[in-house]
Please model this.
Amino acid sequence: MASSMEANFFILFLLVFCSSIHNIISTTTTDLISTNQFIIDGETIVSSGGTFELGFFSPSDSSNRYIGIWYKQILPHIQTVVWVANREKPLTNTSSVQLKVTKPGILALFNDKNETIWFTNTSRSVQNPVAVLLDSGNLVVKDANDNNPEDFLWQSFNFPTDTHLPDMKLGKNFKTGHEVYLSAWKSDNDPAPGEFTRNIDPTGYPQVLTKRGTDVLNRIGPWNGLRWSGAPIPLLTQSRLYTFQFIFNEEEVYYIFSLTNYSSVLSRIVITSNGDIERFMWVEQTKRWHSHYKLPADNCDTYRLCGEHGSCDLGTQPICGCLDKFVPKYPQQWEKGDWTTGCVRRTPLDCNREHVFIKYPGFKLPDTKHCQYNKTMTLEGCRQVCSTDCSCTAYSSLDISNGDKGCLLWFGELVDIRKLSERGQDIFIKMDYLEEESEAGSKRKKATILAVSFSLLMATILLILILLWYKRKKKKLKHREDFELPLFPLATITRATNNFSLNNKIGEGGFGPVYKGVLEEGQEIAVKRLSRTSMQGIDEYKNEVIYIAKLQHRNLVRLLGCCIQGEEKMLIYEYMPNNSLDSYIFDQTKNKLLDWPKRFNIINGIARGLLYLHQDSRLRIIHRDLKASNVLLDTEMNPKISDFGMARSVTGNEMGAKTRNVVGTHGYMSPEYAVDGMFSVKSDVFSFGVLVLEIVSGKKNRGFMHQDHNLNLLGHAWKLYKDDRSLELADEQLADSCNISQVLRSIQVGLLCVQQHPDDRPSMSSVVHMLANESLLPKAKEPGFFTERNIFDEGKSGSQTRSSKNEFTITMLDPR
Ligand SMILES: *[C@@H]1O[C@H](CO)[C@@H](O)[C@H](O)[C@H]1NC(C)=O
Ligand SMILES: *[C@@H]1O[C@H](CO)[C@@H](O)[C@H](O)[C@H]1NC(C)=O
Ligand SMILES: *[C@@H]1O[C@H](CO)[C@@H](O)[C@H](O)[C@H]1NC(C)=O
Ligand SMILES: *[C@@H]1O[C@H](CO)[C@@H](O)[C@H](O)[C@H]1NC(C)=O
Ligand SMILES: *[C@@H]1O[C@H](CO)[C@@H](O)[C@H](O)[C@H]1NC(C)=O
Model:
């Protein structure tokens, strides 16, 4: 048994080995086959620019031989086949097999018995036919002297297999009736057509469908002038690397994408043997295909998941809901999660009664299979047409690339709708006039309820404030210390901050408000004022003064001095006009200001600042509360680490310590620190890793939500990383500016930093090195804290936790 397996393996090995030997020894460097030559197994032709190669191949785990086209530059062991000729008729014996061109212009594959296994078709004949492999990956049969694409006798771009290459038209020619669509391989080792296809269905208004047999699996929606209505906007589809076109006229409908620079990027869309649509890009630095778009991306992509008039929204629980003003058709089934029956209007439409149109903003447009359209009509004209047609149920504009243009009309039920918010479109749905009226009435009611709740809330807050004030009165703070820092007189600070005017307040730090000020000599300062109610603040204040006064680095915020007078305690810093990092990366509009070069600079700056703390400063300092809101940005967007209230110094060779005072911020704390109070430079490295992933993705680790899984940002990043899909993590805003290899490198460094075991995490000096060099990075292991979102919300027995669910630094105190 074992020996026969070994023998099989050996044969397989020989086959693979022999075929690669063939490839190596083949000396053909031509890009064409003419009538007086042919190619046999082992020989290939290569496109003129060297991008593609055509020859015989065997899929993995198969000894069948096929004629195919693959990328020439990509290493043989990841041979990526983009087209197969005889996909349904494999050759099992390739001795004396020939691929040749015959008159009047046919490219054909003959087997050892001189039978035609596969051939191209032509309706014309030419004098001197040749088959040429173009650098686009298109294999064409044409007259040797005629390069006009219109005159090609045959081209493989008209008969794709599972791959959509740049410049290939996917769609339908209405004159000839010929349809160009993708069909998946049956399995990874059988290129025969499988069940899954992807095509542009021109019924109604054209849309792209993925089908299994005749069943629609998903629908990316009609083209809206910019993109497919239901398409996510992943990093690179927005990018300047690509251009997209959708052409729809009397003669043809097709979709085509092109590259702006063919020498820098290899890209393809493929329908996999299990029906996924995936767009890949080759990244030379990593020598891998990286996926940056996958359909279905989540459950909401499932066709008709929420039935008629149901809308899918990843942000809600459950994900299916009725459109506003619609109710479940069968409430009991709906409650049980059987959404297929869908929803109906609360007030049914009646043609004899008055109606209105209600705007539903931000949706993927419903199935357009039964739609009518007019490309020139205005939106108002569209409304009128829909209004006068009794069976019309909704309308929207056809093209939003330049304001609203054209008209799309729906008749009957609306299906396969999904909430997309800002990247979605507006659809106007016909509604009974009475429905709108009753809604207005209930709004008024709601407003009253809201007002009452608000008053109650205010009263509660007031009560709490009074209690706090009373408590404070009962306590006396006493504290004195000697500082080696410049002391500012209170009067100077009062003047600089306009008497702590509210207008000067720029934030609320861990232990009190922060004010902007201008000293008499014009220097701008930030004043951190210890709030008198804060008990905890005193220690932190002292701590901060002790540590930061001794530190000097361009990536650490600089302390200019302090001010102690009576009960007032203040720290004076250099002023950072751009506030903190979190106000940029997590903000829908301000994140545009941080392009990739800036973000990469920020990642590197934080790394250097932290390295200085850990190794290069006189004290070895563990920050313990590194997070986005503790990184300030100067005018040039250079990062400066701030807030040393929680910092601890470790001496000599000591790398860490244990504490019962676990302080830090949820989402940034390493497992060994949060759970056991073990802190070390490696717990800072963990926080740094979280920060890197947040900077790349523009999303917060804590509070991260994803429909497909219950993981936080770390878990999500890890999952994508394992699937080779790391690019999907990157913030959409980076599309135009990103350097793919830097993005991938940063993500991997981030994942290395958040590994479960402290010993696995790199030191900050390796981090700085890894970010700066193109060297190969180690593989990341599983991150710590990536599944349970709310490890603290449960509370931990035996420790007194004062944890808050919000963004603020939390402290777990031991009783003194
Ligand atoms: C392949 O075909 C050749 C010629 O027809 C024949 O000699 C050879 O035995 C065949 N090989 C196999 C494995 O069938
Ligand atoms: C193969 O068949 C064609 C006719 O179909 C003939 O012209 C050709 O000579 C044959 N080739 C061989 C090698 O027998
Ligand atoms: C070849 O073309 C002819 C006419 O152009 C057509 O009738 C025939 O079905 C085609 N054959 C194949 C295999 O496509
Ligand atoms: C295209 O990419 C190559 C390789 O990255 C680069 O050298 C070249 O300058 C680019 N051309 C344009 C027009 O951007
Ligand atoms: C589209 O609308 C325009 C203007 O409203 C009208 O003139 C034209 O006939 C319409 N086209 C079709 C095909 O209905």
